[in-house]
Amino acid sequence: MLLSIMFIFYPCQFINAKRLREEFMSLRKKFIEAVLELDEQKALEITKKRLEAGEDPLKILDDLMTVAEEIGKKYETGEFFVADLVMAGEILKGISELVRPKLKEASKERKVIGKFVIGTVEGDIHDIGKNIVVTMAEAVGFEVIDLGVDVPPQRFVEAIKQHNPDIVGLSGLLTVAIESMKKTIDAIKDAGLRGKVKIIIGGGRVDEYACEYTGADAWTNSAAEGIRKMLEWMRKRKEQKG
Predict the structure, then answer these.
(1) pLDDT of 14-40, one tens digit each?
(2) How confident is the model at residue 49, as a pLDDT?
(3) Residues 6 or more apart from 104 whose CB is under 8 A from it?
(4) What architecture does CATH give domain 111-241?
(5) How far is the C-alpha of 175 from the C-alpha of 178, rounded, in Å?
(6) Which of 44, 89, 150, 180 has the most CB atoms less than 10 A away?
(7) Domain map of the chain by residue range?
(8) Which of 92, 83, 82, 77 is nearest to 36 (CA)?
(9) What is the mean pLDDT of residues 84-88?
């Protein structure tokens, strides 16, 4: 009798878990499609469903990074115009506002673990990806100093002197941002501040080559992966301090 009960229970449990995964994948696909179609109402409704279903809010924010990169590609190829970028930005901002309370619930017991200065580099006005990183960094315990968009190298230098951060993040969605990232890191070196901070670059066009070319410590095109690298840096720094 016990074996019969177990035989019934475990397959049902497996089917339910499989069904839940399929539902998450279906909602994720519809979510990405809704944002790319600039359907604000649908995108927000799906976000609410994902949160109500108990999905990890960090996964939703990671999907936003994927969407942000796709939006950038559409803009560069002429499929999206400035008005579309503005609309997409408003949609992603609305989604972030829905997700933020859930992140705060999960992180309200956390202490400040470090300071993080971030900005979109000079010549690039995209802030979608940057804003997602800001939300996630705050959620895990960083004190974030957001410099905004189109930030010149000297402004980063001034921010490092003023705030004494542990990490500096350089964001950029366009290909031309890579050169601005290099100029910014060169300016930080010239100011004698390079050894005081870890630098991570992020955006749809960054890769290992860009990381080496700019002189950054790390690169990422995934918000969640970037946060993981930052947390690892802070863990190592804490260990070094003893």
Answers:
(1) 445 556 566 667 889 999 999 999 999
(2) 93
(3) 139
(4) 3-Layer(aba) Sandwich (3.40)
(5) 6
(6) 180
(7) 2-106, 111-241
(8) 92
(9) 83
The whole-number pLDDT of residue 109 equals: 55
Q: What number is the average pLDDT over the span 179-187?
A: 98
CB atoms within 10 A of CB 25: 10
Predicted local distance difference test score (pLDDT) of residue 7: 46
Q: Do 116 and 142 meet the contact criterion of CB atoms below 8 Å apart? A: yes
Average of pLDDT values for 174-191? 96
CA distance 34 to 43: 5
Q: For residues 6 and 157, what is the distance between their CA atoms, to the nearest angstrom?
A: 64
Parallel/antiparallel/unpaired status of strands 167-171 and 114-120: parallel
Question: 144 forms bridges with which residues in the sheet?
Answer: 116
Q: The CATH number of 2-106 is which of 3.40.50.10750, 3.40.50.2300, 1.10.10.2840, 1.10.1240.10?
A: 1.10.1240.10
Query: Tokens 């705030």 — which residue?
Result: 163
pTM to 2 decimal places: 0.70
